[in-house]
Amino acid sequence: MINFLINRFETSQQKKKTDLRSAFGSFAGKVGLVSNLLLFVSKLLIGILSGSVSIMADAMNNLSDTVSSILTLVGFYISGKPADKEHPYGHERFEYISGMMVSVLITFVGFQFFSTSIERIREPQSVSVTPIVLIILVLSILIKVWQGVFYQRVSKKINSNTLVAASKDSFNDVYTTITVLVSAGIEGATGLRIDGYVGLLIACYIIYSGLQLIREFIDELMGLRPDQGQIDLMKDYLSAVPEIVGYHDLLIHQYGPNKTFASVHIEIDDRWNLTMAHERIDEIEYKFRKQLGVDLVCHIDPVNLYDQTQQLIHQEIKKMVKSIEAELKVHDIRTLKHGEDEMILFDLVVPAKFKLSEKEITDEIQRKTLEKIGNYKVKITFDHTYLL
């Protein structure tokens, strides 16, 4: 049923030649809006009729889901807008902003019902569960399971973290509704009025879920570490390019779920002329955009591969660095005459939370250079990477 619905919608949108990602996001928002509104109204009515604060808490959770569906619609509409003068990288990050607004709303609702549940614990009331109430709650569970699976499959289709969160929220609603049924069953069987306590648990769970979502979207807005699979894919591709000597300083920037930019330093044979280097770099950038969907910018670093003195210095510097710590990576090794001084310059990549300071590393390499190579001064540019 779900696959049929998704495939039918995709076919209709392809005929219209619309942006599939925005269309699917809006479609998911509309489905969520209708289903959540239906669940809110039905649960609110049975909560009022039965006098159950936990059912009403669950209903208000569905109300927040209804509003979140509206925000999802707005989010996908704005994020689907093309780049303009004010937003040259597009509007995709607005999806994170709409997700943040949903998260704040969920948290607010949780705190409201935390207060209501405390009052119900102080003044407990009997919960009346009729067959019609039971039927509606069971139906709501089935609807939420369907909704969660639907969000899940659409999120995979368009790579949307917002819909992944919506899917998780739908399944969380299933668990909370089951908890409501259990509390009503316990009261019916034992006479214990635990409705307020169950409502309190649901409220705490809503607050926790809201705060977790807020944290996730804050991370996205601040610039979250790219997916490791994406990093490895880029590294594997660059490593497989036969014409280049090597690469380093791979940086990845994301401006939305499907808007990725990257920059990298490409090491090439210094005997290449500018035309040849330009053609090879163009090929790499084109294939990155075509095959990986990433806008890559390359910086060229010429490497002397045949001068024996240079090669000796390269080998010795690499040995020195590895003798200090195997995790250290060195690149752009070159020599320079500065006045009377002979200098060796290179970049050193230091992993996060490395035990030695930059000064300690420099002093150690300077000492080894005087001992192994000769009277050279060492100048190191330190790079701190978090993508290793």
UniProtKB/TrEMBL annotation:
Domain Cation efflux protein transmembrane stretches: 31-222
Highest taxon listed in the record's lineage: Bacteria
InterPro entries on file: Cation_efflux (IPR002524), Cation_efflux_CTD (IPR027470), Cation_efflux_CTD_sf (IPR036837), Cation_efflux_TM (IPR058533), Cation_efflux_TMD_sf (IPR027469), CDF_Transporter (IPR050291)
GO molecular function, one term: monoatomic cation transmembrane transporter activity
Membrane topology note: Multi-pass membrane protein
Main location: membrane
GO CC field: membrane
Subcellular location as annotated: Membrane
Keyword entries, A-Z: Membrane, Transmembrane, Transmembrane helix, Transport
Residues spanning the membrane: 37-57, 96-114, 126-146, 196-214
Domain Cation efflux protein cytoplasmic: 227-302, 314-379
The keyword Metal-binding is assigned to this record: no
Entries under SUPFAM superfamilies matching the protein: Cation efflux protein cytoplasmic domain-like, Cation efflux protein transmembrane domain-like
Family: Belongs to the cation diffusion facilitator (CDF) transporter (TC 2.A.4) family.
Protein name: Cation diffusion facilitator family transporter
Organism, as annotated: Vagococcus allomyrinae
